[in-house]
Amino acid sequence: MKKVLMMGALALCSMVAQAAEGIVGYWTTIDDETKEAKSVVQIYEYQGKYYGRIVDLLKDKEAKAKTPGSPKILGMDIIWDLEKDDDTFSGGEILDPAKGKVYGCEIWREGKNLIVRGKIAFLGRNQTWLPNTTFKGKGGKLVPRKPKL
Prior knowledge:
Blueprint: H1 2-21, E1 25-30, E2 37-46, E3 49-57, E4 77-85, E5 88-96, E6 101-110, E7 113-120, E8 123-131
Antiparallel strand pairs: 1-2, 1-8, 2-3, 3-4, 4-5, 5-6, 6-7, 7-8
């Protein structure tokens, strides 16, 4: 009985630690079609809201977004204005730079991974982003730059 209680307490501590970790950090995105690593996104907090910037493209570093002016995808903010709501981050938007479309966004942790949901009304699609422990950022405080849409 004592061993079962100890295991339950450890599991609860693990879940609390995961929730406390949040979403800030570097995440590897996976291409929906090829299932290969596609980019590295840095999720960062700015004035109480959360944003995501593409900090590395793993294939075509010169790829351009299908948004006005066709800016480079590398360095572009694709997530903006998320707010923490218990264990979920929601209320913001996410840009699919390859399509030039903006969706509502919701993000949460499942274990070590990040689940990113782009949605229109109640319809949506989830992606699983993996923690990236090898990318070395430049450091410094990031300021959001919402792309022209």
